[in-house]
């Protein structure tokens, strides 16, 4: 089944010693995890991303602090504000994304369905639109 952009709530084990959340490939997110990376120490006002992936799917969690993820699947921009560590944003392939408005000391964890490949990136928005229209 083709999955669409969505916020996915993760398990949350409340405990007075401190809370715990987790995710398992395919049980909580709709892909198998091949890679994880994180974005941190983002200076105020900086923007990350500005590209789409041809194949890679991602799930983004704000482990600490907050930031916005701005997505465009061909139907205009939609902004998702992430600010809790017990949910994340699923992004299918072929969705243009940027990340902005990082709070001080924010930490973005990204899990990916593919290993890193520069060939998988579409970095030009017009090219992205052309590829999307011709699918
Ligand atoms: P990039 O994905 O362009 O960052 P942004 O999220 O701002 O678009 O990645 C920045 C650099 O880091 C780029 O030179 C490639 C490298 N990189 C890896 O080597 N492995 C990875 O898994 C990722 C995500 C990036």
Give the topology:
Elements: E1 6-9, E2 12-13, E3 20-21, E4 35-39, E5 48-53, E6 58-64, E7 67-72, E8 77-82, E9 87-91, E10 96-100, E11 107-112, E12 121-122, H1 125-133
Antiparallel strand pairs: 1-9, 2-3, 4-11, 5-10, 5-12, 6-9, 6-11, 7-8, 7-10
The chain binds thymidine-5'-diphosphate.
Kindly describe this structure:
Strand 7 and strand 8 (77-82) form a beta hairpin. 7% of the residues lie in helices and 41% in strands. The chain has one helix and twelve strands. It is mainly beta and 135 residues long. Thymidine-5'-diphosphate is lined by residues 35, 37, 48-49, 51, 116. The site of thymidine-5'-diphosphate has 6 residues, from strand 4 and strand 5.
Please describe the structure with a list of short key phrases separated by commas or semicolons.
135 residues; mainly beta; 5-stranded antiparallel beta sheet; 1 helix; 12 strands; 41% strand; globular; binds thymidine-5'-diphosphate
């Amino acid at each position: 089944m083709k999955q669409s952009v969505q916020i996915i709530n993760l398990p949350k084990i409340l405990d007075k010693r401190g809370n715990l959340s987790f995710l398992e490939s395919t049980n909580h997110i709709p892909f198998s995890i091949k890679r994880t990376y994180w974005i941190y120490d983002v200076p105020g006002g900086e923007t990350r991303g500005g590209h789409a992936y041809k194949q890679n799917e991602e799930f983004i969690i704000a482990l600490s602090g907050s930031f916005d993820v701005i997505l465009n699947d061909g139907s205009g921009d939609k902004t998702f504000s992430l600010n809790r560590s017990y949910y994340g944003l699923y992004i299918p392939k072929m969705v243009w994304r940027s990340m902005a408005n990082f709070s001080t000391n924010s930490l973005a964890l990204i899990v990916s369905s593919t290993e890193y490949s520069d060939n998988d990136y579409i970095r030009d928005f017009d090219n992205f639109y052309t590829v999307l229209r011709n699918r």
